[in-house]
Amino acid sequence: MRLSRAYDDSMRHHRIPSLAGVHACIEISEPNKGHVFLNVADGDVTLSREGKPDCTITGKVEGDLLRLVRGELNLVTSLLQGRIAIEGDVMLAIQLAGSLPEVGGVADLGDAR
Questions:
Q1: What topology does CATH give the domain 3-106?
Q2: Which residue among 16, 18, 50, 109 is least enclosed by CB atoms within 10 Å?
């Protein structure tokens, strides 16, 4: 599944307790796979087609975003290795990174291909 289609399968709001207190829009993108916006409002996460991101996480190596969402890759290590790029609020991306497997699980991002 392409990232840009993930929102078609999951337009519901999802409650992610580990993101309580976070209010942000995060864009997740991968070349040739598309992008999704995660809108976070005090732990409630909604996927959408549009948004004004506070940060953008971009996978540079095919499949790395999928592994990141599954919890198989460390965001900081991947960033230092040049496998992931972050634009905007880097601390927000790092804060979100620990919750990505939970977000991916409820929002069907874990199978985005």
A1: Nonspecific Lipid-transfer Protein; Chain A (3.30.1050)
A2: 50
Q: Where are the domains of the chain?
A: 3-106
Here the tokens at position 50 are 């549009």
For residues 92 and 26, is the Cβ–Cβ distance under 8 A? yes
Q: What is the pLDDT of residues 45-103, one digit of tens each?
A: 888 888 899 999 999 988 888 888 888 889 999 999 999 999 999 999 988 888 888 87
Residue 102 burial (CB count, 10 A) = 17
Question: Distance (Å, rounded) from C-alpha 30 to C-alpha 89?
Answer: 18
- Token pair for 23: 């209010």
Q: Give the number of other CB atoms < 10 A from CB of residue 60.
A: 14
Sorted by sequence, the CB contacts under 8 Å of residue 111 that are 6+ apart come out as: 1
